[in-house]
Amino acid sequence: MPTARPFPDMLAKFLTAYLPVTRACSRNTICAYRDAFTLFLRFMDQQAATSPDKVSFTDFTTTNVTAFLGWLRTDRQCSTATANQRLAALKSFFRYVQDQAPEQIAQARQVLGVKAAQVAQPAIGYLPVEAVRVLLECATRRGLRDLALVTTLYDTGARVQEACDLSIGDIHLDKPASATLTGKGRKTRIVPLTPQAARILTQHVRTRPDDPFEPVFASRTGQRLGRAGAAYILAECAHAAHAERPDLVPAKISPHILRHSKAMHQFGERSQPDLHPRHPRARLHRHDRDLRQGQPGDETPSHRGSCRENPRTKPVRPDLPAGSARLAPPSHLTHCYAKTPGSNTPRTSPNPNNFT
């Protein structure tokens, strides 16, 4: 009868072969799974007096896993969502164990039977336009890199990891400017950049090596900036902005708040569209209005073959990259962007006649 495969061998195969090769998981996903087991081994060492080299499948009981989740929330001050993420990593491993080592099914069921805790959905916070302007002014005083980072987070609505993963080749600064973001699940999308953000990024990219694989945002050592570094830069800008306007800017701002702020500002702008008359979407608005009101005395249909008759047809600017869409820059957001370092004149609102 073959001997049961030990826990260390199964875990090593799970992290080094199954996740990266079979499942083709990203590096961040693999690191998250690895960290979950690192914390469990630390918990067993500190709370159960079991050194990491002595941990086996028999230690993964319902009691131990439940105590581990409580230890995360109390001793490590982790949120309920973080504890649930660690539990999901353990469950994923034991689903793999059930398939590869059927003799461990009974042990795996103890882990798979642990229920995730309910997580309250907090209200989404966002900054008013004036608060974003103050934040960008404080970022300007910190230097060009920090200004470019905060501008990119707000202007593209990118997640912090998406901004950190940007390389020089992902930025297209010729008109129309855009950024290629790679998000969760390795899904790629093209996001247009406003002229103000494009000018700031153009000045910043000139300070970086001319290599498409070089990171757009780097640390002082030249390495790619991580999530912790980006959060630190934003926290410093928020601290300075809060000291300047405590009634407007909160003391703590997470990178995701800028993502929510951009969405709320765009939503408010689209509820009252202010498009240039030559903009395709403005022409579509007039077309819909004419169809609703009718044309007295016009007996011949003048909109044959239009987008109204074919709802699948959408007006698209021919000069935009595939997969992207652009509206005229919101008129109430153009004053957010502060002047860039080295410039003696503040940035002015773009000429609406440039948007065709």
Describe the structure.
The protein is mainly alpha-helical and 356 residues long. The protein has 2 domains: 106 residues; 184 residues, Intergrase catalytic core (hpI Integrase, Chain A, Orthogonal Bundle), CATH 1.10.443. Helix content is 48%, strand content 3%. The chain is built from 12 helices and 3 strands. It has a 3-stranded antiparallel β-sheet, with no helix packed on it. Helix 6 runs antiparallel to helix 7. The longest helix is centred in the first third of the chain and has 21 residues. The protein is elongated, with a radius of gyration of 26 Å. The termini are far apart. The C terminus is likely disordered.
Helix content: 40-55%
For the record, the count of structural domains works out to 2
Number of helices: 12
The span between the termini is 76 Å
CATH class of the largest domain: Mainly Alpha
State the CATH architecture of the largest domain: Orthogonal Bundle
**What is the fold-level CATH name, i.e. the topology of the largest domain?**
hpI Integrase, Chain A
Spatial sequence of strands, sheet with the most strands: 1-2-3
Mean pLDDT: 80
Strand content: under 5%
Shape: elongated
Number of strands: 3
- CATH-defined superfamily of the largest domain: Intergrase catalytic core
Radius of gyration: 26 Å
Strand/helix succession: HHHHHHHHEEEHHHH
Q: Which structural category do the helix and sheet elements fall into?
A: mainly alpha
Can you give me a brief rundown of this structure?
By secondary structure, the chain is mainly alpha-helical. Helices cover 48% and strands 3% of the residues.
